Amino acid sequence: MGRIFAVTLEGRIYSCKHCGTHLALTQDIVSKSFHCKHGKAYLFDKVANITTGEKEDRMMMTGMHTVVDIFCVRCGSIIGWKYEYAHEKSQKYKEGKSVLERFKIIGPDGSDYWTSHEAHIGASDADDA
């Protein structure tokens, strides 16, 4: 395997819980009202230091979306998903944006997020209505 290239972000960052790799800046958060199987998730306009999986269609709370799973470039942990295509017109704003599962990242203050008893089962997205 080759050498891993990771970008160092400046400012208030979210990092991979497993290896500390920088993933996103707080200023790039679009929404904190998303959900996944482990609880909260955040929608970001931009993320860094990721690789992507295969495209697949998934039925989510807000309809059908074509998504790819996203993984930390350094340790390979799955950290969320990226919206490639939204089948519903009202969901087009999600295209090209990424969701990071709060359970899998460390916040800018160094805090871990622990799953709550209210966590949803199965991957989903925000009920933005």
UniProtKB/TrEMBL annotation:
Record bears the keyword S-adenosyl-L-methionine: no
GO MF entry, a single one: metal ion binding
Alphabetic keyword roster: Ligase, Metal-binding, Zinc
Highest taxon of source: Eukaryota
Pfam families, per database record: Yippee-Mis18
Domain Yippee residue range list: 12-109
Similarity-based family: Belongs to the yippee family.
Record's protein name: Protein yippee-like
